Amino acid sequence: MQTLNFWQKLYIPEILRGMWTTTRHFWANVLGNRHTVTQQYPEQPTYVDERYRGRHRLMRKEDGAPRCTACMLCATSCPALCIHIEAAEHEDPTVEKYPGSFTIDELRCVFCGLCVEACPCDAIRMDTGIFALAAYDRGNFLYPRNLLLGDDEPINIAEGKTPAE
């Protein structure tokens, strides 16, 4: 173990060095030499990268039917267990099954993207760019199949809407 000399025991040089760093940052901010990172949200929209994992959505086939085949791979790969699927028999004999109910609990979701990677038919995506997930009730965070397909729109409190509107 290295022994400390007299000046190192006093910590005076380190205190002065810390005070110099603080003073330097203070004057840099006062004189405006630094770029501020404040954004006036929601008046100025925030840039969202195209790879950002936002709210989920389900894709449709060309005929308008849900692309999901209820294979349960997304629900199996989800570490938060937030995807709940109930398979149902399709009336078309060429289609084996389809999701009778498909629900995602956004409060449990950790937005890891494993469900998107596990889906063999590219039925689920997280590329909506929606990051302001807000609601008045916890039940509004259970997204059913019709909302994930885009048939319904959730109440967006971030845009100033209330449930009465």
UniProtKB/TrEMBL annotation:
This protein's superkingdom? Bacteria
List, for all copies, the residue spans of the domain called 4Fe-4S ferredoxin-type: 56-88, 100-129
Localization, per the record, is: Cell membrane
The keyword Membrane appears for this protein: yes
Q: Could you give a GO molecular-function term held by this entry?
A: NADH dehydrogenase (quinone) (non-electrogenic) activity
As given in the record, the signal peptide range reads none
| Topological relation to the membrane, as annotated | Peripheral membrane protein
Reported EC number(s) for this entry are: 7.1.1.-
Question: How are cofactors bound according to the entry's free-text note?
Answer: Binds 2 [4Fe-4S] clusters per subunit.
* Positions with a binding annotation for [4Fe-4S] cluster 1: 68, 71, 74, 119
Cellular component terms per the entry's GO annotation: plasma membrane
Q: Where [4Fe-4S] cluster 2 is bound, by residue?
A: 78, 109, 112, 115
User: Briefly, what is this protein's role?
Assistant: NDH-1 shuttles electrons from NADH, via FMN and iron-sulfur (Fe-S) centers, to quinones in the respiratory chain. The immediate electron acceptor for the enzyme in this species is believed to be ubiquinone. Couples the redox reaction to proton translocation (for every two electrons transferred, four hydrogen ions are translocated across the cytoplasmic membrane), and thus conserves the redox energy in a proton gradient.
Note the subunit structure.
NDH-1 is composed of 14 different subunits. Subunits NuoA, H, J, K, L, M, N constitute the membrane sector of the complex.
Q: NCBIfam families in the record, alphabetically?
A: NuoI (TIGR01971)
- The protein here is known as NADH-quinone oxidoreductase subunit I
Originating species: Candidatus Entotheonella gemina
